[in-house]
Amino acid sequence: MGFVLDERLASSSFFIEDWPLCRVALKSDRTWPWLYLVPRRDNIREICELSVLDQVDFIREVAMAQQALQILYKPEKINTAALGNMVPQLHVHVFARYKDDRAWPQPVWAVQAAETPYTDQEKQAEIQKLKKCFEGLRRGDKAACHQ
Amino acid sequence: MGFVLDERLASSSFFIEDWPLCRVALKSDRTWPWLYLVPRRDNIREICELSVLDQVDFIREVAMAQQALQILYKPEKINTAALGNMVPQLHVHVFARYKDDRAWPQPVWAVQAAETPYTDQEKQAEIQKLKKCFEGLRRGDKAACHQ
Known about the structure:
The structure is a homodimer.
Chain A: H1 7-11, E1 13-18, E2 22-27, E3 34-39, H2 52-73, E4 77-82, E5 92-97, H3 120-138
Antiparallel strand pairs in A: 1-2, 2-3, 3-5, 4-5
Helix pairs in contact in A: 2-3
């Protein structure tokens, strides 16, 4: 059977694109620029359950997601976390943090607050910006992220 | 200058051993079996700042830490997180979660509570158990973790 994204991940995010290993999605909360990376493999819960080749793709894709967030959103810090206590399908959160964000310097999970949805227009703009930056980074062209 | 572990990481953990890339330490809180992996490189804050070769070592070492925790502590889930909002030196938390732990299924950071120190005897026992398991996994011998 083909890869099926967990319903809770799908319903809380917008599809951006598929990479060699991961599905990449934007979390539907504009509080933080926040990506989900989900390896398109069945029945994997932990990074150590990926094959060695997939582990290499995984870290390269996490690094590319971090790089795009750094260039596009100029955060103070990137936070990267694979938790999965509620959604067992292996997924990693890669998101941007700022000194003036509502949880800083705590982990975002230390502060409970409502999510802020993107408008349709904002959502489309973010997705296009990210896709263009990813496409540039694949060619080694960081400048593409700024165009 | 040689690698120097950040003081806040050093003071909240016990040294276990150095791997090809990372220093491995046990967090000094017996609430959860909790490892720190800290790449022994200067001035690195994000995974994407590691060289590609170091990124590969990094993910292989994260996977080995996960595997040891799975075998030794039989958790419900491993949580893996590189946050670094307070300590900029790149470090990843790899720790074991249980359905009856005090934060489940929330991220541990959603629940604030005092840490529980190991006794000296417990600390030595955990460190020896982990070192033996790591040594076995390096040889591909998972059974060594149970001896």
